[in-house]
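Quick check before the chapter quiz. The format below is the same one you will see on the exam, so make sure you can read both the input and the output lines.
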Amino acid sequence: MKIKQLLPTIAIVLVALFFGCKTDDFDEIIGVCPNVVSTSPTNNATEVPLDKVITATFNEKMNPLTINQSSFTIEGASVIASSSSAKMNSLTANQSSLSIQDASAIAGTVTYTDSTASFTPTSDLVINTVYTAKIKTSVKDTRGNALQKEYEWKFTTRNSPAPLITVTDPTNLTTNVAFDKNIQVTFNQDMTALTINASSFKLLLGTTEIPGEVIYYNKVATFNPTSNLITGTYTATITNDVESNTGVNMQKDTTWTFTTVNLSAPTVTTPDPANLATNVAFNTSIQATFNEAMTASTINASTFTIKLGTTVVPGVVSYLDKVATFNPTNDLVSGTYTATITNNVENGLGVKMVNDYVWIFTTVSLPPTVVFTDPVDGAINVAVNKTIKATFNEAMTASTINASNFTLKLGATVVPGAVSYLNKVATFTPTSLLVSGRTYTATVTNDVENSAGVNMLKDTVWTFTTGSAPAPTILSTDPADLAINVAVNKTIKATFNEAMTATTINSSNFTLKLGITVVPGVVSYLNKIASFAPTSNLVTGTYTATITNKVQNSAGVNMVDDYVWTFTTKTTEIIPVINIKSLSRFGILAGVGVSNNAGASIINNMDVGIYPGVRSSVTGFPSATINNGAIYASDDIAPPGVAAMLLQAKLDWDEVYGYLEGATNPAPATVEGDQGGKTLAPGIYKSTSTLLIQNGDLTLDAQGDVNAVWIFQVASDFTTVGGAGGNVILSGGAKAENVFWQVGSSATIGDYTAFQGNILALTSITMNSYSTIVGRLLAKNGSLVMTHTNIITKP
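Here is the expected output.
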């Protein structure tokens, strides 16, 4: 978005009167000089909004060439100058003749149109700043008459920015909104809850106001309609009567619209196969796409059926993203099928289809073919321990794939071996190693049949030549195949029988899956061992690890087959909820100093303590405030017992810090560097040096356990970097009170960071500008510094 779109235009109407000239209400009268007759804001005005339109009114038209950056300047504002009665010389109203400034003139553009000179700065006015506006004597009217002396006035901006709405839900122009939808907006700062009410947050259908309850919590205002919405287009409005908790109104009303769902009955828009389709493959899944989201539970084996004549085809019915799918238990056979979706299926509003949807299709009766062989025809340097494979285009009758129909020969000599079939793949495994440097012939005869009893049209024959070396193999895996109770922070490893080419061991050839979900991770190779390190901890479940036969030894020979093994992780060990004892009362506890450098920082529902530091080392209160709490220092004589209470808190700090630093159950997962962009399950995470949250936010996912605990053991400094990332986000029921950051040196919370958890730092803690925390800042030996407008809230 451009700055001009963000900043209001600040108008200054300029009229100057030359010495020896008289004031006149008419244009082009000899002897009349330009003169300023009024300004807004007035001289010495205070609490001027950052988006205020600044005006100075002239008595005549100005010369635009005299209004430029030299005569009209300002620091951090938008300025408009406009005349009221007489017209000024547009050639003299320019950037040289008009200015508003503080320490130095700001960058901006100046224009002049129809007695109005406009100065548009490149940034907003600065909070709590005294500005001086100047109209210089180089400004002239259209007859060349100049101001007799420089005109100057001052004003002071307010000390808080206007609040903004950052998110609406539903978003503007959204369609198909549910009837039971609650309407929400998210502000960019904390608001005064009393100003967010049924008068300032309204919902209308046309001109009819919708009754409802308005609730505000944690920057989010919610409108709960008294009853469900109906079909139509709604208009939601937040008026500029709402205020931030610093008493600043929104700049303008925010209005957006959305449309609720249509009550028309759902329909099937696309069947697959299409109605009357022919030559449909035997392994086809039958699908139907609806025109809208459906209720998944109504799409089942009773409402979605397939028949061959009058015979019901067994299968599994599923639904996802408007698509209903019927997966036959076995491959189809030759014939004409009837697919039916009954009108008992419902959309998300409970509306049923009007009629059953029926279509027919006919399967293929084509002969099967071999679509791929391994080795391929003409391959050379084939490993002498190679198994020979042929892949068909469809499901085959396994009994027809045997030692008579799948053979391997060396010249005219039949090679003994075992034949098997699985998932369209026929495999020939030689009884002993092949002979190196010889050419072999593999044959699959046309006696093999598909599941419909159709034979191949002809034999499939291919040849390959062996190399001089056997293929590499995997000797062992860690975890072993079928292992159970595997740690969730496990690195998966496979050990080869010989040195491998490292570049072939990569994320394409070494994968890990949970079901069908690919697990992200980093693959490496060293000393015959391939390693897969998951990006984040595993969860409870059964995993499948695969190393494909594309990996090669140092001689360039591939593995014969993919190597696949499975293992099951153990149930996540639970860290008990940690009792922080007397520390629970403190939002801030420091050793030598507590300071609030600038801005109206707030500590909510917790105390501030310093020990062994004294009260004189607590500075910046006010403008920092404590809601429902107090400041306690080691030298306080009232109330009695403050020093003893603070000493106990320090003893409790030592105990909790020691527990966090030494926690080993469950086994800590090693972390290092930037944790931004990661999602971490409950557990203990150990860094042997510094730790960052920078390129993205860190999400802590409790996975539904409201008592889940995280312990971060940081040996040195801990830093979050504001801007593109650095926030800590809780999900899955996670609570900030159960997140602990044990920091061996100092912690810094970056600009604008939203942080969660309890920091126990051995040295100091710094909150940079506008950062917030739901948690506690507890520094043993150093100071706690709030840099600018920080918020600390009890978890």
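If your answer matched, good. The chain is about 5% helix and 40% strand.
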